[in-house]
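Lab meeting, item 3. Inverse folding demo.
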């Protein structure tokens, strides 16, 4: 019987299978000595982060540059390079790396955060910084560093939203080493001294080593003691014609010689401190000329008490604050020379001696 030349030899098939398995278990020496690019980049990346954590910035930068050379699409490596150069005050170089990261991945919260830091460093671009911090938070709502930088930038710009930003940060990280202190600074700038002391106290509890919280707390307590002794108020007033004819609605208001006007005033407590007792309210037309708030004026009322005073308007929110006192004062325009004048209102606390003065520019015809 003739054998079939194409019939498989069982022993040969088994031998070939064994060779295939063994070749997978024992790769060639050349392959074992040269790792794949991604494997090499991963190893370098881990080394770079270790060097960064150990404080070796130069070594970390060199390793990260090798990483992006091996793997040019590794987004976070560019972000780490940006942060390292930013820490070395090379802000323009840092900006380049953060932008490269965004080019690779426009959803990268870390890149938006890094660019926000760059723009915050430039005073004229701080509004732009706020936009980038918000973009970072839109992609990672619990990015604590972006939340802190956003709140700090708003505080530097006297943005009212800084309070909300600090409170949001504290909800995410109640043990933050600085957020309570900065919120206290916001309260103090807003003349809410008791709220400021509570924030400073919380900061000291979570971070006893904070460099300035203790000093800020002592200062706030000192201001509270002074404010409780003197009071802390703002006076707001509106002008109307005492005879019911009404004013022309222009700004500044136009008054006629011989006209009688009435000032409807409201005295408000600023912040959380409320003075006790009543105020005596007086008003007079200023004979000096010139516009602008905060300038030293010599008014008719000033001559009555034999001195000059400075007028300062301190902005604060009236919403939800009950006036300590309200009423009206009547004033005659008789005998006042035409031109730009001021109506000066003075409120004197009858017991505490606190004096508050405010003014309004008017035109006398």
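The presenter then showed the designed sequence:
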């Amino acid at each position: 019987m003739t054998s079939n030349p194409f019939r498989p030899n069982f022993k040969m098939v088994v031998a070939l299978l064994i060779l295939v398995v063994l070749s997978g278990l024992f790769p060639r020496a050349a392959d074992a000595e040269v790792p794949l690019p991604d494997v090499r980049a991963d190893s370098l990346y881990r080394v770079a982060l270790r060097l960064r954590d150990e404080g070796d910035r130069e070594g970390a930068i060199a390793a990260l540059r090798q990483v992006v050379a091996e793997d040019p699409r590794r987004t976070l490596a560019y972000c780490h390079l940006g942060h390292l150069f930013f820490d070395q005050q090379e802000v323009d170089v840092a900006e380049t790396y953060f932008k490269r990261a965004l080019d690779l991945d426009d959803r990268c919260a870390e890149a938006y955060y890094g660019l926000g830091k760059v723009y915050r460093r430039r005073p004229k671009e701080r509004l732009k910084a706020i936009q980038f911090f918000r973009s970072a938070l839109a992609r990672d709502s619990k990015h604590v560093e972006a939340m802190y930088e956003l709140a700090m930038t708003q505080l530097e710009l006297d943005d009212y939203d800084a309070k909300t930003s600090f409170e949001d940060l504290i909800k995410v990280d109640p043990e933050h080493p600085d957020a309570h202190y900065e919120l206290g600074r916001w309260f103090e700038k807003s003349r809410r001294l008791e709220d400021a002391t509570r924030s400073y106290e919380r900061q000291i509890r979570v971070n006893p080593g904070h460099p300035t919280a203790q000093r800020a707390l002592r200062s706030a307590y000192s201001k509270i003691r002074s404010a409780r002794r003197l009071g802390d108020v703002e006076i707001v007033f509106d002008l109307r014609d005492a005879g019911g004819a009404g004013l022309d609605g222009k700004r500044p208001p136009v008054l006629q010689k011989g006209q009688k006007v009435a000032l409807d005033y409201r005295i408000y407590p600023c912040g959380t401190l409320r003075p006790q007792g009543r105020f005596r309210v007086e008003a007079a037309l200023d004979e000096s000329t010139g516009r602008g708030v905060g300038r030293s004026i010599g008014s008719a009322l000033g001559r009555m008490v034999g001195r000059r005073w400075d007028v300062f308007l301190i902005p604060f929110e009236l919403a939800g604050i009950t006036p300590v006192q309200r009423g009206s004062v009547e004033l005659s325009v008789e005998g006042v020379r035409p031109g730009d004048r001021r109506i000066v209102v003075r409120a004197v606390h009858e017991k505490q001696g606190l004096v508050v003065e405010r003014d309004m520019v008017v035109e006398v015809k």
